[in-house]
Amino acid sequence: MDGKEPPLRSVRDVAKVWERFKSGDLVGCPKCDGSMALAVEGSSKSYRLVCTQCGTSTPWFEPSGAELILKFEADGSDLELPDDD
Ligand SMILES: [Zn+2]
Fold first, then answer.
1. What's the CA-to-centroid distance between 28 and ligand 1, angstroms?
2. Are 74 and 47 in contact (CB under 8 A)?
3. DSSP classification of residue 60
4. What is the mean pLDDT of residues 9-29?
C-alpha cells in the first residue's frame, strides 16, 4: 500500500497474477505495456511469470493446491521477502 515495494514480491501478488494466468487472462506487466509469459523449470517443478518485453519477473514459485510457495529469486538466489502480514 505504500507504493515502495517493487511489484510481484509478495506471495499475495504472485498468487494474484498466477490465478489470472491460469484462468486464461492476459497478465499485464506491472512496469511496462508488455505481458507476462510463463517460464517453467522442469527439474524442480517451479514456475515464474516473466515480462516478454522488459524482463520483470516473479520469483520462482511452486503451486501447492490452492496456495503457492515462493521458492527462490528469478536469478536463483535466496528469497528475501517483505513480511506479508
Ligand atoms: Zn514489462
1. 8
2. no
3. E
4. 92
Are 68 and 62 in contact by the 8 Å Cβ rule? The answer is yes
C-alpha cell recorded at residue 39: 517460464
CA of 57 to the centre of ligand 1 (A): 8
pLDDT in tens, 1-11: 454 556 788 89
Give residue 50 CA to ligand 1 midpoint distance, Å: 8
Q: CA-CA distances (angstroms) from residue 55 to 51, 65, 66?
A: 5, 27, 27
Interval 30-73: pLDDT, tens: 999 999 999 999 998 899 999 999 999 999 999 988 889 999 88
